[in-house]
Amino acid sequence: MGYNDDDDFLLLSGIQHFQFCRRQWALIHIEQQWEENVKTVEGQHLHRKADNPFIREKRGEKIVIRALPVKSNVLKITGICDVVELIKAPNGIEIEGEKGRFLVYPIEYKRGKPKTDDSDILQLVAQVICLEEMLVCKINKGYIYYHEVKHRVEIQITDEYRKKVQSLVMEMHDYYKKRYTPKVKIGKFCNNCSLQNICLPTLMSKQTVKSYIDRMIK
Length: 218
Fold this sequence. Notes:
globular; 36% helix; 7-stranded mixed β-sheet; alpha/beta; 7 strands
């Protein structure tokens, strides 16, 4: 789940998990553990509405592309942008098959409301980095649409965010290569985690969830 089958690429979507809780990311992307709850089911339903592969819709001076696969050969991450809007502008870039020049803006869809941390923002910035590398352009902003509040939030793509994404991705690669699952660090965020019953924060210390389950079966 963590690496792309064709190469040593990590899933871009894992950046949000990693920023929220490194142990959660390791359980999902290294130990292959997953548990669905209401939040993850709602999130999947919302993304199905956005993810309509290979659809390119024209709306006047705007082109809307859904479920666009993206990757960065520099960071070795790959993923899918929920929606990418191309807005016609003289200072934009040329797009194959289209007349004129366009500015590029990714839009990430989230089920809830804006978070107090920057995990959603960092996932969007990672998408921007991929798009910039693929299209050879500069993207100065993107958007996050929050389903619960029915509101689109504009995000400025700063150098600080870019550096933080690069640092997180390097750390993720290091964890994955070492097959390292961090120890439990219990906090309030555990109450919002979809892996509470798998993580077993009150039981786990040095052992991995997989070793615990194997031991219990034996």
